[in-house]
Amino acid sequence: MNAKITATAHSTPKNVMTNLDLEKLVDTTDDWIRSRTGIVQRHIVSEDEASSDISTRIATSLLEKGGISANDIDLIIIGTVTPDHFTPSTAALVQKNIGAKNAWGFDLSAACSGFLYGLETGANFIASGRHKKVMVIGVDTMTSILDFQDRDTCVIFGDGGGGVILEPTLGKTGIVDSILHMDGSGGDYLIMPGGGSRIPATLKSVDDRQHYIKQDGKTVFKYAVKGMADVSERILSRNDLTGDDIALFIPHQANKRIIDSAAQRCGISEEKVLINIDQYGNTTAGTIPIALNEAFSDNRIKDGDYVLLASFGAGFTWGSILIKWESK
Ligand code: UT7
Predict the structure, then answer these.
(1) How far is the CA of 34 from the centre of ligand 1 (A)?
(2) pLDDT tens for residues 183-222?
């Protein structure tokens, strides 16, 4: 039994930080950020806002759009590397906030691949026949782990997320294939060293700025292009499809140059590639579900269309999911 997406939603904080705002904080320029990444602005949380607040807005909107009651949700999966707390999970906070009294759930840590890992996990719970309605959210509040003295990282990330409701379908539609990967040998290239059991929080760890995300951008860039392109090519070929058969390609939004190279290698023409990094920056687990909701709301996806999702992120984690769209 396949899982199909029956509702999509996204939410980003109201506050917007432009590249010009960043020029005042670090040694950077609007021109450098636009030309090297494609980013023009990003949304950032207010002081009293965290990942569960964004997720609760997404969850509420999913219930409304799907025309379903909170009591009908069996499972809540939240892909995030910026949960409100280590424990309780963000999923538990959302469960309480929306009153999903029959749901269980958990947070899932796979960085920028968090939403794809969540979709695959949710789809398997649907396939088991024991879950009828699964909520999958990808969300990150990256500003909570960004060092605004480090221009290598602080200019590329933003806050926000999106989600979907998964339900069973008996057709050969919905999530028709997925390939997911992990290679822990890339772990040091994109890492938040402190705060876990390896380097618990101390005055020294804070002084040493260990609680911020650190990235070797050049290395991650290289692996991201190859990873997203290889896995997307592979999922197309094993389903006897080419780039021409894809109605919409929704890649993780980390850098417009990475997206352009990956799409080109898969033979997917420019007009079929969803790019919104200019508006949101890299929201980690949030990028793909935000883009998916924008595309569906803008009528860029219709029943029968093949939609290809692809991600690459810290871990390293990466993957591709192929959907034959069926919404009702
Ligand atoms: O989502 C998870 C996965 N993450 C990714 O996929 C991110 C992958 N990496 C990237 O997107 C890019 O590597 C970055 C956007 C992070 C950096 O772009 P780049 O083209 O790889 O720049 P670079 O690190 O090679 O730096 C080029 C130059 C350097 O100056 P010199 O040595 O040529 O004089 C940097 O010091 O740009 C300088 N630079 C900056 N200049 C202005 C680096 N960051 C900045 C900045 N503003 N923010």
Answers:
(1) 12
(2) 999 999 999 999 999 999 999 999 999 999 999 999 999 9
* Cβ pair 49, 12 in contact under 8 A: no
What is the β-pairing status of strands 104-108 and 214-215? unpaired
Per DSSP, the three-state class of 231 is helix
**Residue 152 alpha carbon to ligand 1 centre in Å:** 6
Q: Domain range for residue 204?
A: 175-324
The best mutation among 17, 151, 221 to test binding of ligand 1, ranked by most ligand atoms within 8 Å of the C-beta, falls on 221
Q: Is 112 a catalytic residue?
A: yes
53 and 111 together in one domain: yes
CA angle 279, 51, 282 (to 5 degrees): 30
Distance (Å) from CA 221 to ligand 1 centroid: 9
**Does residue 9 surpass a pLDDT of 90?**
yes
Q: Which of 2, 112, 266, 293 is catalytic?
A: 112
- Of 145, 173, 201, the domain-final residue: 173
Stated pTM of the model = 0.97
- DSSP sequence for 160-201: EEEEEEEEEESSS-EEEEEEEEE-GGGGGGEE--SSSSSS--
Which CATH number belongs to the domain containing residue 85 in this structure? 3.40.47.10
Identified catalytic residue from 154, 252, 255, 293: 252
Q: Is residue 184 located within the same domain as residue 270?
A: yes
Q: Which helix (H) or strand (E) holds 5?
A: strand 2-11
